[in-house]
Amino acid sequence: MKTLLALLFILMLSACSDCEDCVDYEINELKGIVNESGSDVEITFYMENSEMEGTFMTVIKDGDSFMFVDTSRGWNVLWCQCGLYVNGCNSAMIDVKIKILGDSTKCISFIGPVKDEKTDIRVIDSYKKVGEPVSTTGGNVQAYEYIISPNLLKQVGSCK
Q1: CA distance 152 to 17
Q2: What does the pLDDT average to over 97-102?
Q3: Which of 50, 102, 120, 138 could form a disulfide with 86 if both were Cys (CB 3.0 to 4.6 A apart)?
């Protein structure tokens, strides 16, 4: 009986100890957008069927950034680990339109089905990792940013 209790005690201690071999859960965190395009841009987020339902717009000057979550404004952009979705990865995507300021006829829209995962702002594959993951309880948080680059602006078309 004492051997069984000692074995149980050892098992409980080992279960509570830090595991150096354990694989931590990776948590993707979409931080926001960095404008490196050479032009000021206006971004419109179309969030339907969500707590923050509506259309939200912001201007990002060249060289500036926009954070998806910011307590200083009355709205935030909904995101989840896989991208910009209304309510989790299996829900509707948030539609986004980027308009080049100074030339109101030029836009790039990300509406409907994803056409290119490497450029669509709604998909995490189009984001760039920022720094090293930060360890937290239960996982490592990896931050991501979307970069509006001159190459992205080469894909603009007419605004609809």
Answers
A1: 48
A2: 90
A3: 50
